[in-house]
Amino acid sequence: MSSEEGINHETGLFTRSMIEILLSHEITRSLRYPSPLTILRLALHVAALLDDALLRKAHLMVSDLLNTNLRASDAPGHYDGGYLIIAPATPADGGLVIASRLAHRIKILHPMDSHTQLLDMSACIGVASHAGGRELSEINLLEQANIALAEAQRRGAHSVVNFNDLEK
Q: Taking a C-beta distance cutoff of 8 angstroms, is the pair 98, 53 a contact?
């Protein structure tokens, strides 16, 4: 597969199929070389009824934010109508820092509609982490991130939830 097939040319983010391949690779690496791994599931909400062009603009702004505010080793991609970010060699507390920073930066983004009215955007982010070196599966880590994202969405705009905090 060429890199062109694995990148969404409009957003510069990995496609779902490529982000799944990268996640599988990073899980294997985390198991082999005990290294932490954190993933983030991000859902974007724009508070207004939007036309398709403005919704597209909002997603392009978030894609640009992800491309410019993550480390070169991090992998942001499209996943189930939202985003999946893979943060290799990142423990849970580092993942929470990344998630909080992204949620804040998305909060201050304001795309304008055709009537130059500012529209509020918010992100809900679920964080799942693994210390590395123990049994880990792609499905389990994704499930944890999805559970954390669902809880963040239940809590409302700009929420960040760490799956490990839900178990306590």
A: no
Helix (H, G, I), strand (E, B) or coil at 88: strand
For residue 115, is pLDDT > 80? no
Tell me: pLDDT of 38 over 80.
yes
What is the token pair recorded at 125?
């982010």
The pLDDT of residue 1? 38
Q: Cβ atoms within 10 A of the Cβ of 16, count? A: 15
Task: Please tell me the distance from the alpha carbon of residue 155 to that of residue 64, in angstroms, as a whole number.
Answer: 26
The encoded tokens of residue 9 equal 């040319």
At position 36, the amino acid (one-letter code) is P
Thinking of the domain 8-166, which architecture would CATH place it in? 2-Layer Sandwich (3.30)
